Amino acid sequence: NDRTGVVDDFGGLSDLRQHFIRAVGDPVQRFTEDALRMLRALRFSAQLDFSIDPATYDAVHLLASNLQHVSKERIAVELTKLLLSDHPMTISLVGDSGLSPYITEDFSKVPLDILLPDTLPKEKAVRWGALLRETPELSRKILRELKMDNDTIDTAEIIARLFHEPLPANGYELRKILSQVGYTIYENFLASRIAITDASDGITSQDFLHTLCEIQSSVAEVKASNECISLKDLAVSGKDLMEAGIPKGPKIGQILHTMLDEVLKNPSYNNKETLMMFLSDLQMEN
Hints:
By secondary structure, the chain is mainly alpha-helical. The protein folds into three domains: 1-103, Hydrophobic Seed Protein (Orthogonal Bundle), CATH 1.10.110.30; 108-227, Methane Monooxygenase Hydroxylase, Chain G, domain 1 (Up-down Bundle); 231-285. The chain is 59% helix and 1% strand. The protein contains 15 helices and two strands. Strands 1-2 form a two-stranded parallel sheet.
């Protein structure tokens, strides 16, 4: 205050100088008052790159089970802030401290000592997807239990699963995956995989990194050339097909998807004249 300066009854200035996270007073009492403070201590450690006072950390171990009484929404906020910090690998403390089983029913099955470099894109869904990449089959269930929004759930699950999909071997396969997940998700996946690979050791990692960077360049080329990767970019519409005599119904969609697949194989085919000729060939085959 104006008369006495900084009031520091609990040694906070000393802790700041030593880069220490310490509960105010008795940590057991503080965490008993609000169990979320245990998770918040870990989050502050990640955001500030501070160490946690041993007595404070011991209290987290002791009272970890109290986290089960905290709303999932509040837990999700703290975990997301931790993952979005400059030290996302601090998430491993959630497991080491004993909090993991009380996050959600299946969260303890997620390996939390996983490589999460700070070079990962700072996007909520992307970092959750990177965290859950070893357990993609659990990602949707875990994120739903944490009351995440649908966009985050969908995107994180796709990114987690992409880590287990083969990389595109040619232009058609690349355009097909872009058609399925869109540019933004695939670009973020590639950036994540590049960040993780770059943070790994070994000659094999460097070779794989080169492959990833080549695919990243190919995505940029497809995007820059405005190649058709979706039905909305197709030169022919359902109306065109009906005007050509195709009856309204499911067959319209089937034909459009067949045309799109042909354009994904041969981007130069995306013009009305070529696609209507392709329609004639389809009708002759049937």
